[in-house]
Design goal:
Layout (H helix, E strand, L loop, with lengths): L1 H28 L8 H10 L3 H7 L7 E2 L10 E5 L29 H7 L2 H17 L4 E3 L22 H16 L4 E7 L11 E4 L2 H8 L1 H8 L5 E4 L3 E2 L2 E2 L4 H11 L5 E3 L8 H6 L28 H8 L5 H17 L14 H14 L1 E5 L14 E5 L24 H9 L4 E5 L9 E2 L2 E2 L10 H14 L2 E7 L22 H11 L3 E6 L14 E4 L7 H9 L21 H4 L6 E2 L6 E4 L8 H7 L16 E3 L3 E2 L3 E2 L4 E10 L5 E11 L10 E10 L4 E9 L5 E3 L4 E3 L3 E10 L2 E10 L1
Parallel strand pairs: 2-3, 3-4, 4-6, 5-7, 5-19, 6-9, 11-12, 11-15, 15-16, 16-17, 22-30
Antiparallel strand pairs: 1-2, 7-8, 10-17, 13-14, 18-19, 20-23, 21-23, 23-26, 24-25, 24-29, 27-28, 29-30
């Protein structure tokens, strides 16, 4: 009997031990359990980590990766540059290429082109495709998209952003972010905030009033966070309120994490961290790129000497920092890892697929803007099909996917404009080529080379004379020029020196116009350019940087396979003096006495882009929202569903739009709101809605655009809140900011 009792006790003890073991195992695996809420998993993982493991989590271990928690099986976090394609792999501690043979990608059109589509569905497709490529390459964080506002047309990085208008950028960034993150890849929206010039970008201190900050420079970031659910944000290089943006109390703690409730991780731009106490206290969560080569601190492991590494530990040990700060950063990075690297359900993704090339071409087609088309010179074909076309210009043959800074890509293939035109022309049209000018001969960035030899020993005069002579013998001339992503021509870390076209292109275009009246100019750039020859050229196309399918997209438009539907996301001024920042001498800033800091005051305030032109009654070269089609659209009279709006719900404006031409096309109907007798100085009008509508020949559709109280609100800096003023408003509906077709007045009660 006693033995039986002992056996029973043994079994009970064994069962209890087994239960305890099971509970212990369950506890150990909680953070691994994908069925559990992420917050539970994060807290469980955090509770198991040592101080050193937490510190290792919040700074880089290589050029593009940060350490996970190997002891707990939590993987490293891998970042990749975007936002137009997945950057090739570099060596662990250096910028040189890793020498991989499987890291070529599809280059998608630059974000200026995406914004020019005015199509949120195109942004969703873009995000999904680039997210799939990132996922295939094992990347967890895509360093993009960029949504800084085009304040000056000289900013070398404008081509990576979404134009001058905060509403347009806000609408377009949200689906991009969602599309990327559907793949278990984090979008890292950049550069937060006020990164509006590249020259002196590390030491520029911005002064801007709060109303301008909140109404112009923050809305797209806010939309990415509160509507898009962005999982990470990248800080900017510049300073604001004399604090670097990567550890800025007002921007990161007060606004981003406080007012907007951002629960993701703030990642420094590479080399954007400068101070340990500020990095600890002012909102930075994950430090990358400190020092140039990753091994330059003079110790065995430079990464351990990052501002958020050993110096942080020393401050903790000395009682000068709180564990709460470390836990908050580690918690945010863990949350990012669980959303990305620890998401084992996200699949493999795909790279360089036919679907991705098709998407790149379609987005390029839709973003190209037809600026001018006198006498219907375009499209090529029909009764006026030329027998011989001359293509002129270096940009017709130069690969554009390499260069421009960190958005430089190693592509599987790139179709040049000349090749695209020749393919579209087929055997029925002879296509000749003349260089016309020599611009940028380089074709290398961080070890990626185009393999092109663009050298030419002829003088500028010889090149011009050849082009003009050939132009005189051709039935039609297509000039393909513009900028080229080289230093000071749309490039990271440099601003343009002027608005004019470089390399003597203006003179060449003038000469071509004299030699052949059937001249179409295709401008490739990410910025507005001056066009002193605009009245002499019958057809002008704005083509942007279009990526892998550049040549095919340009040919699709020129030959009419696709009717153009792009609209400018920026104002093209006639001259720099027509831009607010330059008119007020508020760029490039003033160097502070006894310091390397350059102070820039945003004197123009809210009057950025078309707002400045409206306020000063300056006629632009081409207006914000401008873009022609190969068909014609007629607008009917707009009506509102109510005359009195109490601020609840929304007010909807309807306008019939008819395709009056003989081919299908798409029109972007734009709605601007103006305020009569505003109690504070305000822009003449502001974009608050748009809708892209596809119409068959003769078809009419009623377009509906709604606005709500938030759309009618302004930021009250004194009260630090948004407010909508009662009174009379006008909805202005049209085809561009300077082509208003119909207006409707209403009252906000």
């Amino acid at each position: 009997m006693e033995n039986l009792k002992k056996n029973k006790r043994t079994k009970v003890f064994m069962l209890a031990a087994a239960c305890l073991c099971a509970l212990s195992c369950h506890g150990r695996e909680l953070y691994r359990d994908a069925s559990r809420p992420i917050e539970e998993r994060v807290e469980d993982a955090l509770s198991r980590m040592t101080t050193r493991e937490k510190i290792d989590l919040i700074h880089a271990q290589s050029k593009f990766s940060s350490r996970g928690v190997p002891r707990l099986g939590i993987p490293d976090l891998w970042c990749t540059d975007g936002p137009h394609g997945i950057r090739p792999d570099v060596l662990w501690d250096e910028w040189d290429q890793a020498g991989c043979t499987n890291d070529s990608c599809v280059a998608f059109p630059a974000l200026t082109c995406l914004a020019a589509t005015w199509n949120p569905n195109a942004a969703l497709t873009y995000g999904r495709c680039i997210g799939e490529e990132a996922r295939y390459r094992g990347k967890d964080v895509l360093l993009g998209p960029g949504v800084n506002i085009l304040r000056t047309p000289l900013n070398g990085r404008n081509f990576e952003y979404m134009g001058e208008d905060p509403f347009l950028a806000s609408v377009m960034v949200v689906p991009y972010v969602k599309g990327v993150q559907e793949n278990g890849v984090a979008a890292c929206v950049k550069h937060f905030a006020l990164n509006n010039n590249e020259s002196n970008r590390h030491n520029t201190n911005v002064t801007v009033d709060d109303r301008t900050l909140y109404e112009i420079y923050l809305p797209a970031f806010k939309a990415a966070v509160t509507e898009g659910g962005a999982w990470s944000i990248m800080g900017a290089y510049n300073l604001y309120k004399d604090q670097h943006a990567c550890h800025n109390e007002y921007l990161l703690n007060n606004i981003l994490k406080g007012e907007w409730g951002f629960d993701g991780a703030v990642i420094s731009d590479w080399g954007g961290a400068h101070d340990t106490p500020q990095a600890i206290s002012n909102g930075l969560d994950l430090e990358f790129g400190t020092w140039t080569d990753g091994l330059g601190a003079g110790t065995v492991n430079a990464y351990d000497n990052y501002y958020l590494a050993t110096p942080f530990v020393n401050m903790l040990n000395d009682g000068k920092a709180d564990m709460e700060d470390l836990d908050d950063k580690a918690r945010r990075v863990l949350r990012l890892i669980f959303r990305t690297a620890m998401d084992h359900s996200k699949g493999d993704g795909e790279m360089c697929s036919d679907a991705h090339y098709e998407a790149a071409r379609r987005i390029g087609d839709e973003g190209i803007v037809l600026l001018k088309n006198d006498n219907r010179l375009l499209p090529i074909g029909g009764d006026k099909t030329p027998r011989k076309i001359l293509v002129v210009g270096e940009n017709a043959i130069k690969m554009m996917t390499v260069g421009g800074g960190s958005s430089s890509l190693k592509v599987q293939r790139e179709c040049s404009p000349l090749d695209g035109i020749r393919a579209a022309a087929g055997n029925s049209i002879a296509v000749d080529y003349a260089r016309g000018y020599v611009g940028d001969l380089s074709g290398e960035y961080n070890g990626v080379t185009t393999g092109q030899d663009l050298s030419d020993s002829r003088s500028a005069e010889e090149l011009l004379e050849e082009a003009v002579a050939k132009a005189a013998e051709a039935d039609m001339v297509i000039f393909i020029g513009g900028l080229n992503k080289s230093w000071r021509q749309d490039c990271e870390d440099s601003d343009r020196s002027g608005l004019e076209l470089p390399y003597g292109q203006d003179r060449l275009i003038e000469a071509l116009a004299e030699a052949n009246r059937n001249l179409a100019v295709v401008n490739i750039s990410g910025n507005p350019v001056a066009m002193p020859w605009v009245k002499k050229v019958p057809a002008i196309v704005q083509a942007w940087y279009l990526g892998s399918e550049a040549g095919n997209s340009i040919a699709d438009i020129l030959f009419g396979k696709v009717s153009p539907s792009g609209k400018l996301p920026m104002t093209f001024p006639v001259s720099l003096a027509d831009n607010g920042a330059h008119a007020l001498d508020a760029y490039p800033g003033t160097k502070r006495d006894g310091s390397d800091i350059v102070d820039i005051e945003y004197k123009e305030g809210l009057l950025v882009g078309y707002r400045w032109h409206d306020a000063k009654k300056i006629k632009p070269l081409f207006a914000f929202g401008h873009g022609l089609s190969y068909t014609d659209f007629k607008y009917g009279k707009a009506v509102a569903d109510r005359k009195e709006f109490d601020g609840n719900g929304s007010i909807t404006f309807k306008i019939p739009v008819t395709n009056c031409g003989d081919r299908a096309g798409a029109e972007v109907v734009q709605l601007y709101i103006s305020r009569k007798d505003s109690p504070v100085p305000s822009p003449v009008k502001e974009l608050k809605g748009f809708s892209k509508v596809w119409l068959e020949p003769g078809e009419t559709k009623e377009v509906s655009i709604s606005v709500d109280k938030d759309d009618l609100s302004r930021f009250d800096a004194e009260k630090h809140c948004w407010t909508a003023d009662r009174g009379e408003y006008t909805a202005q509906i049209g085809a561009s900011s300077d082509d208003i077709k119909s207006t409707v007045k209403f009252n906000l009660k």
